[in-house]
Amino acid sequence: MATQNGGPTQNAAPSLNVLAQYIKDFSFENPNAPRSLAAPPSQPDVNIQIHVNARPGGDGEFEVELKIDGGASIEGNTLFAFELVYAGVFRILNVPEQSLQPVALIECPRLLFPFARQIIADAVRNGGFPPLMIDPVDFAALFQQRIQQEGQRVQA
Questions:
Q1: pTM of the model
Q2: For residue 142, what are the contacts with CB-CB under 8 A and spacing of at least 6?
Q3: Percentage of residues in the chain with pLDDT exceeding 70?
């Protein structure tokens, strides 16, 4: 924190620090092995859902959870399924109140995503399949969708 004449200044620069990151919950299922490991007759259907949550922890700290659920199937038969909750503790300082939610729900998951993506790719590969490389995620668009959904709930 910047100081002037022994006291904090009003114009201190905003900061975002990662204090910790960790797997909070993780599961991988290969329910039809070893049959599911045979060469598939067609391209599998891959389904991925991403959710972000943030909780304040005091002193400018927030726990941000990136939840990624997904799996692959062929003709309704599950090849594999996974659920990952990858979280981080972030310190967000000198950010205006109206900008805290966008920082926590856009910038923080953007920092967590590459690590979560690698965990999933490794698990799928270790499950006997080619690694699943999840496309980059537009967390700003996810945030906008969330705001619109919350607005629709308030109107209903």
A1: 0.85
A2: 50, 52, 105, 106
A3: 92
